[in-house]
From TrEMBL:
<dbReference type="InterPro" id="IPR013154">
    <property type="entry name" value="ADH-like_N"/>
</dbReference>
<dbReference type="Pfam" id="PF00107">
    <property type="entry name" value="ADH_zinc_N"/>
</dbReference>
<dbReference type="Pfam" id="PF08240">
    <property type="entry name" value="ADH_N"/>
</dbReference>
<keyword id="KW-0520">NAD</keyword>
<feature type="domain" description="Alcohol dehydrogenase-like N-terminal">
    <location>
        <begin position="22"/>
        <end position="140"/>
    </location>
</feature>
<dbReference type="GO" id="GO:0005737">
    <property type="term" value="C:cytoplasm"/>
</dbReference>
<dbReference type="GO" id="GO:0008270">
    <property type="term" value="F:zinc ion binding"/>
</dbReference>
<dbReference type="InterPro" id="IPR011032">
    <property type="entry name" value="GroES-like_sf"/>
</dbReference>
<keyword id="KW-0479">Metal-binding</keyword>
<dbReference type="InterPro" id="IPR017743">
    <property type="entry name" value="ADH_phosphonate_catab-assoc"/>
</dbReference>
<feature type="domain" description="Alcohol dehydrogenase-like C-terminal">
    <location>
        <begin position="186"/>
        <end position="320"/>
    </location>
</feature>
<dbReference type="GO" id="GO:0004022">
    <property type="term" value="F:alcohol dehydrogenase (NAD+) activity"/>
</dbReference>
<comment type="similarity">
    <text>Belongs to the zinc-containing alcohol dehydrogenase family.</text>
</comment>
<keyword id="KW-0862">Zinc</keyword>
<dbReference type="InterPro" id="IPR036291">
    <property type="entry name" value="NAD(P)-bd_dom_sf"/>
</dbReference>
<dbReference type="InterPro" id="IPR013149">
    <property type="entry name" value="ADH-like_C"/>
</dbReference>
<dbReference type="InterPro" id="IPR002328">
    <property type="entry name" value="ADH_Zn_CS"/>
</dbReference>
Amino acid sequence: MVWNEPGRPHDAIAAPGVRLSPGEALVEVELATICESDVRMVRGERQVTTPLVLGHEQVGRVVAIGEGAVRSDGVPLELGDRVVWSVTVSCGECDRCLRGLPQRCRSLAKYGHERVHRGWELSGGFATHVQLRAGTEVVRVSEEVPSRVLAPASCATATAVAALDAASARVDLASTGVLVTGAGLVGLTAAAMAIEAGAQVIVSDPDAARRAFARGFGALTADPAARPPSPERLATALAALEARDVPEVLVAVETTGIPQSVHTAVGALGVGGVALLVGNVPPGSEVCLDPASLTRRLVTISAVHDYTGAQLRRAVAFLERSWRNVPFDELVGATHPLAEVDDAIAEAATGEFVRVGVAPGRRPV
């Protein structure tokens, strides 16, 4: 399904044929989920070159393999492998790739973001199939885990891993106070991962249902819109941390991209704390910070964008061991057939569900 411009429905096109080069594979899509960035593109809030096939969160099955195609761990791909794959395609040879930043490769390509062109029509998840190019991190996944759990691994889950990796480079998460601003899928996943690592976590979000979900797996919660004397204030949650012998927040994961939320996340940090900026603040927005306060508190501010192949593998491992305890499948609303992708995106835009599904082929599990 090809998207051309805001206000125009998707067009169905047929790929004229798929020729796999060495290192490539063809995957039949089992389920794709709609990321907020897909919604923003359809609204015209992000500059992209059209026409393009949207969608970069999906799980599928390998149905054809080019010569030498391998998984992220170096094992050859096999027909029938159930897989997820990275949103990025990297060369592995440029200076950025060699510095451990393949997600910012000099010749970067991204699934769901590239203009449709001859030879790579099947470049996004809102399609029956996706052609995986050489340089894509491909991870085999368990047959037991529901597709509603696995599909977001290549975006939200792996990004959460990258955020906590950046935090762990500065702070030991065990018994540490962690504030997560925003209970979208990245925020909820980062909170669940931090709790698994032994952290005491506060999730701040205005949506009561999302706060309830976070409390279900052990997080404290706060409503950023709450005012005294409401017990939902952030100050109340911070006091609850102190009662648990956690005197201050040392990690803040900011996932909303809202300037006030960024200010809150950085301001909540104690001495030696680190703020991870994950949400995409709109271009041109500004966040006012007091340099003297940052200096006195020895605060580190770091940005996270996408992830590495190793982080995608760990994201899958987390989902495979935790999905029965943290019901991520409940965060996906209705699943629509591919022909109804416009209806699915409209539903996703309401914000009622954290994710909405698109199932191109047979019924997803």
